Amino acid sequence: MHWIKTRQEAFYHPVLSGKLHCGSGEKKEDNSMLPPVKKDRIISHLPKCFSPNAALHTKDGFHPQVQAACQVQKSRTVSFNIAKVIVVGDVSVGKTCLIRSFCKADFDKNYKATIGVDFEMERFEVLGVPFSLQLWDTAGQERFKCIASTYYRGAQAIIVVFDLSRVSSLEHARQWLEDAMKDNDPSSVLLFLVGTKKDLSTPDQLFQVEQEAIRLSEEIKAEYWAVSSKSGDGIRDFFFRVASLTFEANVLCELEKMGSRNEGDIIRLTDSTEDNHTPAKRKPNCC
């Protein structure tokens, strides 16, 4: 993995010309320039959480207003944009493998530490609407921490990764989250705590570590997942969940900003409609 030389290189790449937030002055993807979304990246239903005890929300479907808005949106040329997702955690916990397992369907046992920051762009179609995740893979080594941290700002989701076979990496998860939050609004970011290398743990070991991980997830209001990049166990479900929840948050943000006051308008957002579909009482990133 190679360090990105400048932020401008990332943000002005032809494929990365979409906006990163739902602010009114930011760019969106020009979907006319892109090939169709792959069939295995189409999301028509909200994926289930990994554990109801540590989930951002446990509803079976997307927010009703999101579903209604998408029906309207499908007939338009503008999409609901790109979400910036940063992936943080100790060195060698498997951040790069986690991303590559999903984006490239590849697992490389010859581990090479990320130098600085790298990223992947993954395109989806959610409820018939184009949507992309920009996955920022950050270095876990202390000497590159200052470089990686410059890319934390503006995240709509933060994935904190730890190694299920290495308890110390879970203990460090809180610090990684605190560092990532310094440049983000805590009320605007969706959090995920992900245990990797599930295939290396015995059932007893996994149970013990998961109890600690779930407790931490509840405390920091994050959604917990356990996956294996090597076997692929849980990888697709996890990233589909991330894409779905960030998409939902983005749409709710757009609807809130449009703020129609007409009683019969399907995109009207009021306090009475903001129920448990809004993940963990976190506001969509509207900065």
From TrEMBL:
Keyword flag Secreted: no
One Pfam family hit: Ras
Keyword GTP-binding: yes
SMART domains: RAB (SM00175), RAN (SM00176), RAS (SM00173), RHO (SM00174)
InterPro entries, per the entry: P-loop_NTPase, Rab, Small_GTP-bd, Small_GTPase
Superkingdom classification of source: Eukaryota
GO MF: GTP binding; GTPase activity
Keywords: GTP-binding, Nucleotide-binding
PROSITE patterns in the record: RAB, RAS, RHO
Matching NCBIfam families: small_GTP
Protein name as annotated: Ras-related protein Rab-34-like
Organism whose genome encodes this protein: Pleuronectes platessa
Species lineage: Eukaryota, Metazoa, Chordata, Craniata, Vertebrata
